[in-house]
Amino acid sequence: MTPAALLLGAVTLSRLAELVHARRNTRLLLAKGAVEIAPDHYSMIVLLHTAWLASLWYSGWDNPVQPSWLAAFLAMQLMRIWVLATLGSRWTTRIIVLPDAPLVASGPYRYLSHPNYAVVCGEIAILPLCLGLPWHALMFTVANGLVLSVRIRAENTALNIVRS
């Protein structure tokens, strides 16, 4: 097994584990009376991330891993862990609003409104660069920007509901 395949395998397993964690959190939040906001764009997110990871497996599984980009990607993983730990049971892959729950203002949320999306933007650009695939980085960064423009507007609307 190549170093690139090991890296992609670790990322793939991590994303699958996160989906299981997110679904569990979603179920628990909905059981507490939370509601999902703007679910229509969710399939675009799933498609984008699936295509991104599949394209990396297809094009980069046997490429050399660039150490400096790998270090940057690992730094993004530390940021991801910080975001997930800060949100705890409120972290999901969907926009779920729990009425009367205060907004999270600790951890990375002290510094950024949407730190998870900053991490995702970094990952989508950096992982292809780890594998020497700059065109993948560019193409998926642009596509992610388009999807996030929809997602962030929807999430800001949801956050305004919570604040009012």
Q: How does the major sheet shape up?
A: 2 strands, antiparallel
- Average pLDDT: 94
**Helix/strand class:** mainly alpha
Contiguous uncertain segments of 5+ residues: none
End-to-end distance, in Å? Answer: 53 Å
Strand order in the largest sheet = 1-2
Distinct helical segment count: 5
Outline: elongated
Number of strands: 2
What fraction of residues sit in β-strands? under 5%
What Rg do the Cα atoms give?
16 Å
SSE string, helix = H, strand = E? Answer: HEHHEHH
- Classify the helix fraction into a percent range: over 70%
Describe this structure in words.
It contains five helices and two strands; from the N terminus they run H-E-H-H-E-H-H. It has 164 residues and is mainly alpha-helical.
Explain the layout of strands and helices.
Elements lengths: L2 H29 L3 E2 L5 H19 L6 H21 L8 E2 L17 H16 L3 H30 L1
Antiparallel strand pairs: 1-2
Helix pairs in contact: 1-2, 2-5, 3-4, 4-5
Task: Name some characteristics of this structure.
164 residues; mainly alpha; two-stranded antiparallel sheet; 5 helices
Concise description?
With 164 residues, this protein is mainly α. The chain has helices spanning 3-31, 42-60, 67-87, 115-130, 134-163, and strands at residues 35-36, 96-97.
